[in-house]
Amino acid sequence: MKNSDIFKAMTDIDEKLIEESAPYKKSTITFKKLIPIAACICIVIAISAGFLSERFNRLTPHTQLPDIVFDSMGYEGINSLDLQNSIDINPYTKEAMPDTLPVFKNLCYSGGLYQNFFSEENLQKSITELAEKLGKNSLEFSTLKGVIDTDDPNYEEDLIYNVIAESDELCISANGYRFSISPKTKEASDKLLAYLKENYDMQNIGEHKEFSVDGELLTTKYKAYKKGTSVKENILSFNLLSAEIHYTDTGLIDFVILNDYLNSSEKIADYKTIPIEKATAKLLLGTDVDTSTPAELIIGGKVQKEHIIKADLIYYANNLQQVFVPSYRFYVKLINPDPNSEIENYGLFYVPAVELTEASDFEAMRNVFQ
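Structure (tokenized):
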């Protein structure tokens, strides 16, 4: 990738930038959980991996090389054999950073709790249309619902959490912004692969590979997205309109997650982007930084420039975010609990990539980086 240029930019931080990155007090919000009341069935368990946070799964992130793994670390971090030299398909480059990037309101968010923006009928229609594209017309529908653990009168007692459609060849699950597709046969897997090749850029995925860490077989995951005609379009597609492809140990598609956050969001406005040098200065000051990394694992107790190994640009998007904000994601080297291990530990730190002071909904955006 362009890691050497990005790393050079981060290490050449003007001390004046750090002085100008004045901190402000940040507020926090908490999220309550949906309590599902439907019985657990095997197909829901198989698909549920697509709805879990990556920090709790041993998965490769979006890379061609199997040298990075997410581990069950108890916080959002990664293990890596060779992080600085890894290759990924993130379209962000320091040289072609757009002057502005949009911020989106998540229509499925309300009061800190997830609430599906789509009706059961709409979800069934979306699944049917996707199934037809995959060559399947006959489906049996079921709906997974839940109740909200809150006294807020704005919430219904019974909320749609997931609509599931199953046939003899595949299973499709949808919640408005995300589809999970699990083929049951080789023929269905081949059809799904053909659909992906037709609609998504698959050139960067490469061949399916198996690998392990400390003798444990890891699950590979690859990402594809629709290329646009500009860097801004590519950044949006990579983050908000993408396909995550998970393989079985035999090389067939295990399941695919089609993310479409734009389907359940509303553009607030375009905001001026900040250069990575300024974001790095904020990180070093601890201003506008979001991380779940335990402080006791940070070398020296404070992020140092020499411990920032890599950075990219993403949208911090999931179903419990009030807004989707473009952010610089920094990979910071941490204390290694096993000094004899070849695998290094890194924490993930996020800094907004746009000037939030220009946003009308400033407080909501600021709360993303709590």
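Confidence is low (pLDDT under 50) at residues 22-62. The CA atoms of residues 102 and 270 lie 4 Å apart.
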